[in-house]
Design goal:
With about 180 residues, the chain is of the alpha+beta class. About 30% of the residues lie in helices and about 20% in strands. It contains six helices and five strands. Helix 3 packs across helix 4. The radius of gyration is 33 Å and the shape is rod-shaped.
Length: about 180
């Protein structure tokens, strides 16, 4: 219609296309306006603030929490696609383990007998990981099977084989861990 408007009267073209003249002129006026310019700027600012970690759902939530601006999630998605913003997907870490079963699994010394007749006869251990903020914390605990009491524990920021609390390991004792490694001490 814009191309034909140079050679034909606008009023007759509007009648032909069944559009009001005021609607046509309003369209011409807003055609060059970017209505989403401020919203795109806000989305880009929130995206940069959180280092590109989050997608459109979280960006929408942060717009509401941080700036107090409610925006439809579809609009946030559309503008993020238009701006080329995507969340950085964190890949799951792969842990290197031995390929041969004989190297990974130790001899079963407890034989599922998780009771002890006297204290300090059998101890068991395991390493548990906890997410604390952006980091992982590993907790190694040693438990006496006689009275199910925690004998020792040690928090650490790294998983390592020498992580067991050694300050109280002594005497003739059997220490077994969940991964199958049994340590006669």
């Amino acid at each position: 219609m814009e191309i034909a408007a140079s050679s034909y009267p606008v009023s007759s073209l509007c009648k032909l296309f069944k559009v009001s003249r005021s609607g046509y002129y309003a369209y011409l006026k807003r055609k060059h306006m970017d209505r989403d310019k401020e919203a795109a700027l806000l989305i880009r600012r929130v995206y940069a603030r959180y280092e590109g970690k989050y997608g459109y759902r979280q960006i929408q939530l942060f717009l509401w929490q941080d700036a107090g601006i409610w925006m439809n999630h579809k609009k946030v998605l559309r503008l993020m696609q238009k701006l080329g913003l995507q969340s950085n997907i964190r890949r799951k870490r792969r842990f290197n383990t031995a390929y041969h079963a004989g190297e990974r699994v130790a001899e079963n010394l407890l034989k599922r007998n998780f009771t002890a007749e006297k204290p300090n006869q059998k101890w068991v251990t395991d390493v548990t990981q906890y997410r604390v903020g952006e980091r992982w914390l590993y907790l190694s605990a040693v438990k006496d099977l006689f009275n199910n009491e925690i004998v020792a524990y040690q928090p650490n920021q790294h998983v390592s084989s020498g992580q067991l609390p050694r300050q109280c390991l002594h005497g003739k004792l059997l220490l077994a861990s969940q991964n199958g490694r049994a340590l006669p001490l």
